[in-house]
Design goal:
Helix 1 packs across helix 3 (about 45-60) and helix 2 (about 30-45) crosses helix 3. A hairpin with a 2-residue loop joins strand 1 and strand 2. The chain is mainly alpha-helical. It contains seven helices and two strands. Among the domains are: about 10-80, Arc Repressor Mutant, subunit A, CATH 1.10.10; about 160-205. A two-stranded antiparallel ribbon has the order 1-2. It has helices at about 1-25, 30-45, 45-60, 85-120, 125-150, 160-190, 200-205; strands spanning about 65-70, 70-75. One of its GO terms (molecular function) is recombinase activator activity. This is Homologous-pairing protein 2 homolog. One of its GO terms (cellular component) is condensed nuclear chromosome.
Length: about 220
């Protein structure tokens, strides 16, 4: 039992030392919850151990304790720190200002480097670019060969022959439209006295429409 108490006391002393060092380093007021939140992840402190250690440190006079309503605030004993005069405070303020500007400049540089890195990551690597260039060269070579084959062909159509083909096409398309219109007029006239539907009539006489054959009338 005595050994267990001794071990518990030693552990309390260890955690008290960790918390004391933390408060002296930060030199700002904290609640027990603040200290627990800040040190728990790094040291695995329990909430009860933190409260107990801080109360012990305050009782021993190693840290100061202030009570605000229902909350206790703890901070380092300021007597251990040397007095700071106005000149020192101004120097510190100047140093803080310079460091803040440096941080801002470094932050801006980091953002710029991040943007450049993203751009580089989205770009092709040297190997990928070489491979793509080779593929494009091969494709261009194929197009050149095809072009030369077309140029060397002996069966080119003359402008006159081409014009004749287009005129004949226009003539046939016009005739197609004319006959389709006549057929439609005749069908509609018959349907006026036909007792069945248009579809049934066309099936009965064996007529297939352009739509049945999925044929689209071209434009002239």
């Amino acid at each position: 039992l005595t050994e267990g108490r001794s071990n518990a006391k030693a552990e309390d002393g260890f955690w008290a030392g960790v918390i004391l060092a933390y408060l002296n380093e930060k030199n700002r007021p904290y609640s027990a919850q603040d200290v627990f939140s800040n040190l728990q992840k790094q040291h695995g402190l329990g909430k009860t151990a933190v409260v107990k250690a801080m109360e012990l440190l305050a009782l021993e006079g190693k840290i100061k304790e202030k009570i605000y309503g229902k909350q206790k605030i703890y901070f380092a004993d300021q007597a251990q720190f040397k007095d700071v005069n106005d000149a020192d405070l101004k120097a510190m303020d100047h140093q803080i200002s310079e460091l803040s500007e440096e941080v801002q400049s470094l932050t801006q540089s980091c953002r710029q480097l991040d943007a450049e890195l993203k751009e580089l990551n989205s770009s092709l690597t040297t190997e990928e670019m070489v491979s793509e260039i080779q593929e494009l060269k091969a494709e261009c070579s194929g197009y050149r060969a095809r072009l030369e084959k077309i140029k060397s062909a002996s069966n080119h159509i003359t402008p006159e022959e081409k014009d004749k083909v287009y005129k004949e096409r226009d003539l046939y398309v016009k005739e197609w439209k004319k006959r389709k219109r006549l057929a439609s007029d005749m069908t509609n006239a018959i349907l006026e006295g036909y007792p069945k539907s248009k579809k049934e009539f066309l099936e009965e006489v064996g007529v297939e429409t352009d739509e049945d054959c999925k044929v689209v009338l071209p434009n002239t």
